[in-house]
Design a protein that fits this description.
By secondary structure, this protein is α/β, with parallel strands linked by helices. The chain has seven helices and seven strands; from the N terminus they run E-H-E-H-E-H-E-H-E-H-E-H-H-E. It has one domain: 3-Layer(aba) Sandwich (Rossmann fold).
Length: 236
């Protein structure tokens, strides 16, 4: 059974993936910045998991988490780069601190995890799953810098696919809007009001977790390079 590292596993897509993968018997290393947020894990998830404090922006913490996982489980077979955030604002009024936080988390965080975990993944013939976005392919108003970070995630995935196809598998999961606390980071009150309902009507985090499981369980002779998944907005 595979050993899986999930970053940003305290809520949203990361938590949903942890719960689903635990029911399938996978062993999990769940990381987040506040371990208290794991206090309400379902019994099966808790049973199958080790918990590590890890801010993906902190290279030392990433090293410690991966080393602890390797020591306990013996291998790192799958890495799910899920930790990420977004702020909605116009370029003209955007805050440089928020731009930096998005780049540091969504891009540098992914690179930190990959730099530490890649030797272990190559050794195990492992699988990298990067959580991108439909924003990996499109640019939307009021989210230009966020879109730029997700374009970068897709480019990183593709570079791995091109350079290491004989050593690791890589998948990009690219969701549309997902009904998680993601939107609540936005500090522009006008845009928060405009987008909150839109995200509430988006995909469930469980739908993304199912796509992650599908990629992990795909046949050995196949690689799911990318899954683009959007909300079904057909009026019922």
């Amino acid at each position: 059974m595979k050993n899986i590292l999930i970053t940003g596993a305290t809520s949203g897509i990361g938590r949903a993936a942890a719960n689903l993968l635990a029911t399938k018997g996978f062993m999990l290393c769940l990381t987040g910045r506040d371990l208290r947020r794991f206090d309400d894990l379902p019994e099966q998830t808790a049973k199958n998991s080790m918990l590590e404090i890890c801010d993906v922006r902190n290279y030392t913490e990433v090293q410690q988490a991966v080393e602890a996982m390797k020591a306990k489980f013996g291998s790192v077979d799958v890495v799910i780069n899920n930790a990420g955030l977004g702020f909605f604002d116009q370029v003209e009024t955007g805050k440089i601190e928020q731009w930096n936080e998005m780049v540091d988390t969504n891009v540098k965080g992914v690179l930190n995890v990959l730099h530490v975990a890649l030797p272990h993944l190559i050794s195990s013939g492992g699988h990298i799953i990067n959580i991108g976005s439909v924003a990996s392919h499109q640019v939307f108003p009021n989210s230009g810098v966020y879109c730029a970070t997700k374009h970068a995630v897709f480019a990183i995935s593709e570079s791995i696919r091109l350079e290491l196809a004989d050593k690791v598998r890589v998948t990009t999961i690219s969701p549309g809007s997902v009904n998680t606390p993601f939107i609540e980071k936005t500090t522009n009150e006008k845009m928060l009001g405009e987008y909150r309902n839109y995200f509430a009507q988006g995909l469930s985090a469980n739908s993304i977790a199912e796509a992650i499981l599908y990629a992990i369980e795909s046949s050995k002779d196949a690689v799911i390079s990318e899954v683009v998944i959007r909300p079904n907005r057909v009026v019922k």
